[in-house]
Amino acid sequence: MTDAVALLVAVPILFALLPVTVGGVWDRAGWATAAVAALVHLGLSLSVAAKVFSSGSFTYAVGNYTPPFGIELVADGVSATLVVLTSVVTVAVVAYARTAGPHSNSFYSELLLLTAGISGVFVTGDVFNLYVFIEITGLATYALVATGDDPAAALASLKYLLVGTIGASLYLLGVGYLYIATGTLNMADLSTLLPEVGYGSPLVLTGFALLVVGLAVKAALFPLHTWQPGAYAESPDSVTAYISALVSTAAAYALFRIVYAVFTPAFDAAVPFALDALVVLASVSVVVGSVLAVLQSDLKRMLAYSSVAQFGLVIAGFAIANSTAVTGGLVHLVGHAVMKAGLFVGVGALASVAGGRTVDDLAGVADRAPLTSAAFAVLAFALVGVPPAIGFAGKWHIVLGAVEGGRWGVALVAVVSTLLTLAYFARVVERMYFRDAPAPAEEVAGDAASPDGGDDTLAADGGETSESAADETVDAEAEAAAGSVSPAARAIVVGAAVAAVVLGLFAVELIDVFEPVLEVYF
Amino acid sequence: MIDLLATHYNYLVYVALVGIGLYGVTASSNLVTKIIGLNVFQVGIFLFFVTSGYIQGGSPPVVHGHGAETFVSPLPHVLILTAIVVGVSLTAVALALVVRIYNAYGTLDEEAIREVQLND
């Protein structure tokens, strides 16, 4: 049964070979293989999770080489939860891609490679192996971003490749410093050997700095986030949903492992400066990301900058280094993945109805796609942090942890970012519900009879000023784009909204799952 | 200074390569030059690993060795073999993207591409 941990990585890689080999013979091979692989992956991750929840965390020696020398895979509460999350997102994205996504076979190969890479990041217990999985994740992501038809996608992908590779290489360099200091690559082994070398040793400090900067690039912390908006905005909707949910999540998780499994809170006690610097970086990231998100008119760019802010919050939680804040960071990490994937699929779905993906294009879309719009609004408010949803549970614990740790700055930043998040989502929801669609003239008269009489003037103003330019194109597309939201997309957005609320209601159970892992560190 | 050059020249070369590589990535506006810079940067890191695993007069830890007294851990070198493979794959992906960008824009100069995008 424990082999399931290794199979989580091996199965998607093996299945990834099929679409490219059989693809010439059978056109739909890609989707079929990806669907089967995603379901098998879900079964494997559920079996790993079941074992972790019933009998505690366990480790697996790859190839039967005993851990300090061989590669170790670790399954505990945190990695099991994230692996299940990976499987669920993979199943959802494969279902969504059937109608929406790029239909080429190579797309599904890349998707499965990415699944393998991310699963690997979540389960590995070896710092060099982590580098390899980060690079597999990276390679697959670069290729996926470039699947968009627009050549701008290729340019965004190359930019991401250059920045991402430098990040990963800095991480590798950090691994080198730690290896020279200790002579081991195993995380558990490193955590016992590092204190013997001395946390103040220049080798260890340099190693820490390089590892953190490398992973911060991958997690898109300000000022290392520049690759992200382009990569998210230019890639196809299904790809954006997938990478926004998992790729930066994997990097943030890796950072969590490095800080707690390798360096442990004892390092923080010995060298408080290191994590203080990370807190500052993360806080700046929260503020700058939120402000830039408010300034965007393109929805996908807005959500991308919102990710910069949310990951800042998660990493601030990790860097505060007390149990409450780290729990909050992990909860927000899981919650953000669910909410962002749902939001990006929602943007794709609503854009197919509204005929464009800027904020103004969504005017009045709630009338034409009521269910999807409602789910989108629920997700938006969940990310803002409205109570029953998971976004609240995560932010609440981060703020609580910040106050516990005496870091009032972070608590303030979290509150400010919540307000800014509200600012950019309220704008979207207001357009969706309280503005009339820029439709042909006779329809406007009918729509204006909506209950909110006071909005008539607002709608008229908007129609004359900001929407005048968009009108020409939208009018032309109004007929063509009147097509409804695809059932799969609607199901995913609604599912994500329900998941965000349900996860929020059961946040206490989620925290119970993370607790045994954190108890080891604190 | 001379002493440092004589004994630690390999570390100096590593620092130089990483610096030159980063400079190439950031300073040049040509996309292929950026990729070359990336490669130089990675080679610097490879050199760092390889040189850290080198011991003068050491021999490989094989069972029927040469009766040497000092042995060298092969692990850093093996790690770098993996990293080289990763680097080659990255270069391949990057060059494939460059081909696509060149077909679409007809240039590889970043500034020129930005102008083309603005004109669209």
TrEMBL record, chain A:
Residues 125-421 form the NADH:quinone oxidoreductase/Mrp antiporter transmembrane domain. It is found in: Cell membrane. The chain crosses the membrane at residues 6-26, 33-53, 73-95, 107-124, 160-180, 200-221, 242-263, 269-295, 302-321, 341-359, 371-394, 406-426, 491-511. This is Proton-conducting transporter membrane subunit. Its main location: membrane. Residues 444-472 are annotated as: Disordered. It is a multi-pass membrane protein. Keywords: Cell membrane, Membrane, Transmembrane, Transmembrane helix. PANTHER family: NA(+)_H(+) ANTIPORTER SUBUNIT D1, NADH DEHYDROGENASE. GO terms for cellular component: plasma membrane. InterPro entries: CPA3_Na-H_Antiporter_D, NADH_UbQ_OxRdtase, ND/Mrp_TM. Residues 446-468 have a biased composition (Low complexity).
TrEMBL record, chain B:
The chain crosses the membrane at residues 6-24, 36-55, 75-99. Keywords: Membrane, Transmembrane, Transmembrane helix. It comes from the Archaea. The keyword Transmembrane helix applies. One of its GO terms (cellular component) is membrane. It is found in: Membrane. The keyword Transmembrane helix applies. Pfam families: Oxidored_q2. It is a multi-pass membrane protein. NCBIfam families: PRK07375.1-6, PRK07375.2-3. This is Cation:proton antiporter subunit C.
